[in-house]
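Now for our target.
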Amino acid sequence: MKTKKTRIRIRLLKAFSAVLFFSFLLTGVIFNFAIRLFAVEGEINFHAYQELYGEASRVIGRVGIISVVLISVMFLVTIVVTYFLANSLTRPIEKLGAFAQNIGHGDFTPNDFQFREAELEDLNMALNRSVRQLGEYDSEQKAFFQNASHELRTPLMSIQCYAEGISCGIMEPKAASETILQETHNLADLVTDLLYISKIDNISTAYTTEEVDLAALLRDSAARQEAMATKGQIRFSFDFDAGPVYYACVGALMARAVDNLISNAIRYAASEILVSCHRRGDHIVIQVADDGAGIGADLLPHVFERFTKGPDGNHGIGLSIVKTIAEQQDGYVTAGNGDSGAVFTVTLPIER
């Protein structure tokens, strides 16, 4: 059953209004009682002054005693009302305080509290939302460190094995050293990606926004990776707007995002990569498409998750970095399959 939400200030107002009402009511009763005692059938007998004076003194004394008793009763009633009112306010706050302490101790289990007061219920809902987000973040961090440990251990073990093989004389030094160099290169790339994730996830890091020509940024990224593409007999095609495509962003982060997209395309392309950049309404759309085998149906929903790797994937971090950078620019990235191969699309809002 849904309970009606009431405001704490309304409860306080009602409680103290009731106390004041009864205070005035009792005061009125006291004065009315005194007036009735001094009246004799509605008239005062002024001729019997001395006799009335003595009687009045006795009546006033009785009225004083009655007043003290009534005021004491009123005071006790006020204390009782205040006590129960204070309990009704402090108990839910104590419950929420204990819940907050549990969060501080690492317990991210939402509570099932329900409060009649709208303010307390809003606070409870906000705490539950926060604890769910903290729980998700904690799980993601644990999974991240587990996966990172596994990814770091693999090249380290390979380097160790080949180094021991050289030391024991059971491996040909030149071939083993080449493998060690390759694994060292992979390890360095992985550490660089991990450090980059830490950098872009740190909300306190200050970045400088600048006007960047995204078309030139894409051409420069393709030029940097031209040697790798040529080695795989892959050529680049470009489809840009006629003029520069300026966009206010963090240039270093955007360069890293397009580098990752293009290097990923090189890894899976058969012979060609199409890179495009266009203004479309109030957005800028960047696309990197290859003519490879495309993304498998089972992999497609998870392609931007950290440590999710395709058949020829490296560490499974590059695309997650692209996603994070796009979201930091208030944009988003999507993945799909075109007529031939995978298509990655980054959509960035011009006005933010």
Strands lie at 210-213, 235-240, 246-249, 272-280, 283-290, 332-337, 342-349.
